[in-house]
């Protein structure tokens, strides 16, 4: 059990639900799907995606960055403002940046590779490497903020954003920084990624009804919809936050991280790794399964993931039956950003006492029955402890335990 309480003092969100925390929260609470036909994927087996809407204002020099980094810089602006740090007032050497991403600047890489093949090497941008190298999202953010503490990138596939938050928590507890700006970003709704996921059978083929394509835990689920976006949370030791007059939104009370060692892409069918990660997060928070009031599930809308995750929830929380929700019904699968986006939504759920519904969930099948999926409308509930699950290719499992202040 930890000795230092870690507070969440700021949130910034850029998602298919909208630019900014309130736009995203409203879309998720309304159960409104962002899935649409995507012209950039025309001619592929699946042409659906969940895209971030264009921002109303564009900070200077964004054109130099990959799409995912642009999202990250916009999210940072909001996160710092909500934490009362828009004017900075910090020691730059005591601020860390930790960013999770599954694919780095894949949009830039694909675009520049097409130029190389079709128009020759002279057309390749000199900004290609600074835009697509996986570490550069964190590097560009540190540069933008002018901070000189640890600048790290984490990559655990679709758990990357949550892993970044765990890493930031460990840096704070180790005394390596006083403030950590941490989260995830990805922009993987690209032709290569879409073609590869479609070839694997991971994407929903419900192109005749895009708005109902992503259906976490539902009996009609047939895959996820590619999404994109970014989320950043400002983390501090609680004592540090209160000393500067910041009001914490929630506490990151515990975390757990495990590997399945089962299959390159499929989860362990019984969810053994996820169960161990949940138990680790609860132990770190000094809590038990019966203390859990809510679960923000990974809930990808794929048959295998939802089956394994539902099995763990059903077995581990058999006496409490905490309400479960998945944001991917509304936002699609935002890949390396998902864990951070869903952690931010869990913080908002705790702070506002409202659990959003799971968009498009109508009825379970035999493999997802027995869990309390919130559906149809918001559920008002005061929460004492909530979990946010994130799973990734490679067998990564990360679980965050969040509590009210």
Question: Which descriptors apply to this entry?
Answer:
12-stranded mixed beta sheet, alpha/beta, 12 helices, single chain
Task: Give the CA-based shape.
Answer: globular
What's the SSE pattern?
EEHEEHEHHHEHEHEHEHEHEHHEEEEE
- As a percent range, the share of strand residues is 15-25%
How large is the radius of gyration?
A: 20 Å
Average predicted local confidence, pLDDT: 96
Span between termini: 17 Å
Main β sheet profile: 12 strands, mixed
Q: Would you tell me the structural class of the helices and strands?
A: alpha/beta
Low-confidence stretches: none
Tally of separate helices = 12
Count the beta strands. Answer: 16
Helix fraction bin? 25-40%
Short description:
With 405 residues, the chain is α/β, with parallel strands linked by helices. It contains twelve helices and 16 strands.
How would you sum up this structure, described in words?
This protein has 12 helices and 16 strands. Strands 1, 2, 5, 6, 7, 8, 9, 10, 11, 13, 15 and 16 form a 12-stranded mixed sheet that branches. Strands 3-4 form a two-stranded antiparallel sheet. Strands 12-14 form a two-stranded antiparallel sheet. Helix 2 packs across helix 5 and helix 6 packs across helix 12. The longest helix is centred in the first third of the chain and has 16 residues.
Q: Layout of SSEs?
A:
Elements: E1 6-15, E2 18-19, H1 21-29, E3 35-37, E4 48-50, H2 67-82, E5 95-100, H3 106-119, H4 128-132, H5 136-145, E6 151-154, H6 160-173, E7 179-187, H7 191-200, E8 228-237, H8 238-243, E9 250-259, H9 272-285, E10 294-296, H10 303-316, E11 323-325, H11 328-331, H12 338-352, E12 354-355, E13 372-373, E14 379-380, E15 386-392, E16 396-403
Parallel strand pairs: 5-6, 5-7, 10-11, 10-15, 11-13
Antiparallel strand pairs: 1-2, 1-8, 1-9, 3-4, 7-8, 9-16, 12-14, 15-16
Helix pairs in contact: 2-5, 6-12
